[in-house]
Amino acid sequence: MMQTQPAPAAKTLDDEVLYDVRDGIATLTLNRPERLNTISREMLMLLGQLLLKADADPAVRVVILTGAGRAFCAGLDLNAATKGSGIGSQNDTTSTVTTLDLKTAPPTILFNMEKPTICALNGSAAGYGMDIALGCDIRIMAEGAKFAAAFVKRGVVPESGGTWFLPRMIGWAKAAELIFTGRTLSAAESLAMGLANEVVATGDVMSRANAVAAEIAGNAPLAVQAAKRMMRSGLSESFGDHVHHVFLQLLPLFRSEDFREGMASFLEKRPPNFKGR
C-alpha cells in the first residue's frame, strides 16, 4: 500500500531569520528569498533579537550576516507598505514609524555590538539592506552583487545609518553624489570606493566570509572586542582623549588569561588557545 508523504512544515515567522552557531561563528541568514529578503515588521524585530543574542553569547566570537537566495536584502517590504500593512504604510504611522525604539533597531544594535560583524553579500543590497550592510565591520561581496542607494528615488532618506556611514567611508563629495543621485554601484565600483573589503565569485562568498571569521575567531576575543570599542569611540574623540581611553582598556587586558596565553604561545612558537578570559 502506497504511503503518502507528510506535507512540508509551513514556514513560520521565526524562520525569516535563521540562526546558527559553529566554531565561535554565529551566522544570521535573512530568509525570505521569495521576496528578495525584504524586511517585514516581524522580521525587523527578530533580526534585532538575534543580533543581541549573538552579542551576549560568550560562545560567539564573530557574527556573519547574509541572505538566502539571489539577493542579500532588497530593503523594507514596500509591497506590504503599499497595501497598507507594512513599515512606512499610512496605517503604520502610529505603530512602527513613530513608536519605533531606535535603540533596539538592527542598525543601532549592529553599531553597538561588541562582536565583530561580517556582511556576506550573496546578492544585491538596496535601501535598508544597504544600510544594514554598511553597519557591519567587514563586507564581502559576490561579483554580481550591487549596492542600490535608491532612497531619494522612493521619497525617503538613508534612514538607518547611511547618512552617517557614507561620508565617513568615502568622503563627503562621493557620499553626496551617491545619495543625491540614488545611484546603483556594481561590486567592482563598491570595491574601488572602499565600500567592500573583497569581491569574490558568487559561489565563494560564504566560504570566504567563514575563512575571515575563523581568522578573527582565532584571536583573543577580549582584545578584538576592546579594539572594536576603541575604534567606535575614536570616531567622536580627540586624539588625547582617545589614547587615554585606550590605556584604560589595556589595564584589564594585561590581567587576562588570554594575555598570558598570547605571550606564552609566542615564546613557545605554538598557536595560541584563547579562552576569552
Structural account:
The protein is an alpha/beta fold and 277 residues long. It folds into 2 domains: 13-217, 2-enoyl-CoA Hydratase, Chain A, domain 1; 221-267. 44% of the residues lie in helices and 16% in strands. It has 12 helices and 10 strands. The protein has a 6-stranded mixed β-sheet with strand order 1-2-3-5-7-10, with helices on both faces. Helix 6 (162-170) packs across helix 7 (172-181) and helix 10 packs antiparallel against helix 11 (239-254). The longest helix has 16 residues, at 41-56. The radius of gyration is 20 Å and the shape is globular. The termini are far apart.
C-alpha termini separation: 60 Å
What's the number of domains?
Answer: 2
Q: Tell me the β content.
A: 15-25%
Q: Would you tell me the overall average pLDDT?
A: 87
**Structural class by SSE content:** alpha/beta
- Mind telling me the CATH superfamily name of the largest domain? 2-enoyl-CoA Hydratase, Chain A, domain 1
Number of strands: 10
CATH topology of the largest domain: 2-enoyl-CoA Hydratase, Chain A, domain 1
Helix percentage range: 40-55%
Strand order of the largest sheet: 1-2-3-5-7-10
Q: Secondary-structure element sequence?
A: EEHEEHHHEEHEEHHEHEHHHH
Low-pLDDT stretches are none
Rg, rounded, reads 20 Å
- How many helices? The count is 12
